[in-house]
Design goal:
mainly alpha; globular
Length: 125
């Protein structure tokens, strides 16, 4: 499925952004604390080669997209955060979370992934 999805540049960018959002939170205890405080749920750790990472990441980001958006805003506006990289990356991810193409694919894959997971599970048996 990932190979098929990578044929489209738009979908390839979508999955790269999914991985980027997950990696953004997993590489910093400060960001993880904000995520825990607002979302009360962690995003899967970024493992691009695993299909179930992509599926769980899409589903988690879709289910908590508004709270993740709030996390990004909090990281940008928090005066206690001085790390320019965190502010810059949060700003970029905030734009991604408002992008119509990203939201279209997030919605699409959130509906498709459960069925793909079933097929993937059956093919492994």
């Amino acid at each position: 499925m990932m190979r098929a999805a990578s044929v489209s540049r738009e979908i390839k960018v979508f999955f790269a952004n999914i991985q980027g959002i997950c990696a953004f939170f997993s590489t910093s205890p400060q960001r993880t604390a904000v995520l825990d405080d607002i979302v009360k749920n962690r995003l899967p750790r970024a493992v691009a080669t695993r299909w179930n990472f992509q599926s769980r990441s899409v589903m988690t980001i879709f289910e908590h997209r508004e709270a993740i958006f709030e996390c990004m805003e909090s990281l940008i506006n928090d005066t206690a955060i001085h790390n320019e990289s965190t502010i810059c990356q949060a700003s970029g991810h905030l734009k991604i979370l408002t992008d119509n193409y990203f939201m279209y694919w997030l919605s699409f894959f959130s509906k498709v992934m459960p069925f793909i997971d079933i097929m993937f599970g059956q093919s492994r048996q």
